[in-house]
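User: quick one, fold this
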Amino acid sequence: MVWAYVWAVAFAGRRWGKLLVPVVLLLGVMPDIDLLLRDFGVAHHTFMHSFFFWFVLFAPFLAVYRLKSVPYFVAVVQHFAFGDLFVGEVMILWPFSRSYYGFDTAMVSVFAVALETAGLLLAAGIMYYNGDLKRLLSVDLRNIPMFLPFLALLTSMLFFAVDWHACKPLVAYVLSSPLFATIVLAHIVLVIFLALSAAQGLRRHQ
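Assistant:
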């Protein structure tokens, strides 16, 4: 989510102020919806992590809105073309190739944790600099949709916790691994921010 925001702002240029931040954040995790579809035979990091799949979905928006839709396309594509490409392997060229590409770095590694932490800090810095942070934490009806990325992130965290298959209990592993604890802390900070923003939107609605 945080890197989706960073990349979207970079590609929005002077139009960053018109970005729908909740949509950008949500798109940042959309490829991982395949995790919820595995019972239907959809494997993780396959076609939902390919350029072609998302280009086809975005084609109508790119045709109608042109450059205005590019930051949103970048927000979803960066998930596998930037993040997953470094910390995993993805079928990025599907359907033209069913080969997996990536550096397959472990999720709990210095590099992966540094990448996630840098994304969170960079996104926070950009939000503060361009005024998004103040607006997203203000009493504003436009913040109600922040519940969508909040629910997506919370679902992702709960899915991972339930699916954890290490020999140690999850809490014990978090406490014994500074790297993993850093990732968990970053996720907690982000989920609290999203919840506060959405709650501020609801306050305005009342």
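User: anything notable?
Assistant: The chain has one domain: 2-205.
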